[in-house]
Write a structure and sequence with these properties.
The complex is a heterodimer of chains A (483) and B (246). By secondary structure, chain A is an alpha/beta fold. Chain A contains 16 helices and 16 strands. In chain A, 33% of the residues lie in helices and 17% in strands. By secondary structure, chain B is α/β, with parallel strands linked by helices. In chain B, strand 11 and strand 12 form a beta hairpin. The two termini of chain B are 33 Å apart. Classes of the chains: A alpha/beta (483), B alpha/beta (246).
């Protein structure tokens, strides 16, 4: 069917241009339609006789998934056609090359790789939020927009949590790209979003060392080794490998999904704040695990035992990034305590949640700010100490807690920007109590609550309702309002 | 054309009323009724009367095993179901019983097949509980899309041209396009006695043009339906199970 296609043909209003790619599964053609201004690509599956049936199923998955995706991290979809006439999908043509073109230049500088993989992790977080697990994260599936965002292409192997999985029974061996495939995929697990984090870990390892952590084996036997054999720690290959980077890479490459990052957003968070990565034994490893551990893994059946069904949405919901904005300078002790109680309640119910404590060091609009206060202390460091002190009673594992001092003229804007950049799911802010100050300075919590794209909880200290209500003339607002 | 498919109403008036209202709100153009209008619930006369009215206005109605049991007394059932059948028989008018007695076992429309249990033996009342059951049904028909009920648990199966099966538990209110090139078996949940752990009444819609299927859940007054069952002296478990959705 695909070979019959000629430039100039018209399919459902799309005029076919030139063939730009002939792959094993599909051919890609440029197309145009008068009412669409963005450059377009038509993807046509290879389905003539003797072709791999995988091409059909992969095409069907793309046909179902692509029209449902939105946002900057996916190619926009402009139409699909089914096998009744001409099977195709028309998607936005992303200019430029895939990351595959970067392979000859590996390894990359650590900072460049960090920035690159952060963008991919953000794209994955966005995809997972749309209930899709990509299942083929590798350099040739990743492109970048001119505006900088990573775009994930090729959804032929993907799993959508709210759609039938047509690849469920299709293949006896797991289908995908061997060097990047997560170990649980070899056991037939297709509904764990952390499989994508493993693949991204492989990519990060490869891009920073120039070596693939599990080699290039394509045999099932060779692939199965990753069920018990961990890769060489990058520091063994490169003496200058930063411990924080090794921590991140090896956490992504954990054999059991539960030991990896719980979400792509949390991985992006660590990549965005290397100085705050909690270093564990992983960061110092110079050898891979001893034989005894490997043998235990190999003959331990717990991994292969059936697991409860993991739901993409449920997993994301259970692992949010929670940020609490604290006013350590002017906030009352009662308010700070109330904030801690609220944060504690949320974190207790969600063991995989992490907490980012933020404080805004307010800059004057016109004055030149000094880093040191009147006693010669560094204000920035002082605030960090205060944030850690506030969080101490929560007794959070260091891997779940980070502290951030933001310097800004407008505290509300700084909090909103932090939440946006770090994929924060839930913001907790205190309401300014002093009504005169609130009148003069405006309410930070009100601005944050009205403009944030995530859930916001506004906290007020407990008070004697009757007495305060008379003073404030405000009876409608309870101790805490959830927006 | 937008179809609404209702299965296993089981004389539950509040549930059926809620589903009909929800379907009309979605601008459904044609109603498909997959059988088991009676049994278990306390409003068989109203339910059959309503179904007869819908059929007069172009609805398709198929026979279910409970409808069959009321008019033929042939099927063996568990004690509670049997008690409900005998009670029901005493409630229905002759005209209503005649209506149930002339209902077809299957109905076909374009590339669609409607049947109560499954396509390989519509009168054998076997349940579709696995991909193997679903495959047996799909192999037995040329229809691209089969709609059935009977099991009281929503599911969606597909079979590729190479006979590879997929099974899927649908998410409410998320449309799934039934791709051409493979066969589909859409198992509707139950209107009047859901058994998938979700007590809300179930039905589905199917758009014949876009081939989008959407499974819907509708809250209804369960207490009222349960009270009607108790008031009529039917087995209490039939009332209790409604709130549990099993």
């Amino acid at each position: 069917m695909a070979s019959d296609l000629q430039p100039g043909a018209v399919i459902d209003g799309f005029t076919v241009g030139e063939c730009v790619h002939r792959g094993g599964m599909a051919t890609l053609w440029t197309v145009t339609r008068p009412d669409i201004t963005v450059p377009l690509l038509m993807k046509i599956p290879r389905i003539s006789e003797g072709e791999d049936p995988a091409a059909i199923v992969s095409f069907e998955m793309e046909q179902m998934i692509l029209p449902r995706l939105s946002g900057p991290h996916v190619p926009a979809c402009f139409g699909t056609g089914d096998f009744a006439r001409q099977a195709y999908v028309v998607i936005e043509r992303i200019p430029g090359d895939t990351l595959y073109k970067r392979l000859p230049g590996l390894p990359l500088a650590y900072e460049e790789a960090r920035a690159l993989v952060t963008k991919i992790a953000l794209a994955l977080a966005d995809l997972h939020r749309q209930n899709v697990i990509h299942h083929d994260v590798k350099p040739s599936s990743i492109m970048f927009r001119e505006s900088g965002e990573a775009v994930l292409i090729d959804y032929g192997l993907s799993h959508h949590n709210q759609l039938p999985d047509l690849l469920q029974e299709e293949f006896r061996v797991p289908f995908g790209t061997a060097p990047y495939m997560a170990p649980e995929r070899l056991l037939g697990v297709r509904n764990d979003p952390r499989s994508d984090l493993f693949s991204l870990g492989v990519l990060l390892y490869f891009f920073t060392t120039g070596v693939r952590p599990f080699g290039e084996t394509e045999t099932l036997r060779g692939m199965r080794r990753r069920l018990w054999r961990d890769p060489q720690p990058p520091r063994r290959l490169k003496a200058d490998y930063p411990p924080w980077l090794q921590e991140i890479v090896l956490r992504c490459l954990e054999i059991k999904p539960v030991w990896r990052y719980p979400t792509a957003a949390q991985l992006a968070f660590d990549l965005g704040h290397p100085d705050q990565v909690k270093l564990t034994a992983r960061s110092e490893k110079l050898k891979h695990d001893p034989c005894s551990t490997v043998l235990r893994r190999r003959f331990n059946r717990d991994f292969s035992a059936p697991r409860p069904r993991a739901d993409v949405a449920a997993q994301l919901a259970a692992s949010p990034i929670v940020a609490v904005a604290l006013d350590t300078a002017e906030g009352s002790p009662a308010l700070n305590e109330a904030l801690r109680v609220t944060a504690e309640r949320i974190l207790k119910t969600l063991p995989a949640a992490r907490l980012a404590c933020i404080n805004v060091l307010k800059l004057g609009r016109v004055t030149i700010d000094r880093t040191l206060d009147e006693h010669g202390h560094n204000k920035h460091v002082d605030r960090m100490v205060q944030l850690k002190h506030w969080a101490q009673p929560l007794q959070l594992d260091e891997s779940r807690l980070t502290v951030h001092v933001l310097e800004a003229v407008d505290p509300a804007a700084a909090i909103l920007e932090f939440a946006q950049a770090n994929q924060v799911d839930h913001l907790i802010v205190g309401a300014r109590q002093d009504s005169l100050r609130r009148t003069l300075l405006g309410s930070v919590s009100a601005k944050v609550a009205s403009e944030a794209s995530c859930t916001v909880t506004v906290v007020r200290p407990p008070r004697l309702a009757v007495q305060d209500a008379v003073e404030d003339g405000d009876q409608s607002v309870g101790p805490a309002g959830v927006f | 054309m937008l179809l609404a498919v209702f299965a296993d109403i089981h004389a539950n008036r509040p549930a059926f009323e809620a589903c009909l209202a929800a379907a009309r709100a979605r601008k459904v153009e044609r109603m498909i009724l997959l059988g088991d209008y009676v049994g278990y619930g306390a409003d068989p006369e109203w339910t059959v009367e309503t179904v007869m009215g819908l059929v007069e206005h172009g609805a398709v109605a198929i026979r279910g095993n409970h409808d069959d049991a009321v008019v033929t007394a042939s099927e063996t059932m568990n004690a509670e179901a049997q008690a409900a059948i005998e009670w029901t028989r005493g409630r229905l008018s002759l005209a209503q019983q005649r209506f149930l007695g002339q209902l077809p076992m299957t109905s076909e429309d374009d590339d669609r097949l409607f049947v109560h249990s499954e396509a390989s033996g519509p009168a054998r009342w076997r349940y579709v509980q696995s991909t193997a059951d679903a495959a047996r049904s799909m192999i037995a028909t040329k229809a691209q899309v089969t709609f059935c009920g009977h099991i009281h648990r929503p599911a969606l199966y597909s079979m590729s041209v190479t006979a590879k099966m997929t099974s899927f538990v649908p998410t409410s209110d998320v449309a799934v396009q039934l791709l051409r090139g493979r066969q589909w078996l859409a198992v509707a949940g139950s209107v009047g006695q859901p058994r998938d752990g979700n007590p809300a009444a179930a039905f589905l819609t199917y758009d014949t043009a876009s081939r989008n299927i959407t499974y819907c859940r509708v809250p209804y007054d369960i207490d009222a339906a349960a009270q009607r069952i108790r008031d009529n002296g039917l087995p209490p478990w039939l009332a209790d199970r409604l709130a549990m959705g099993r």
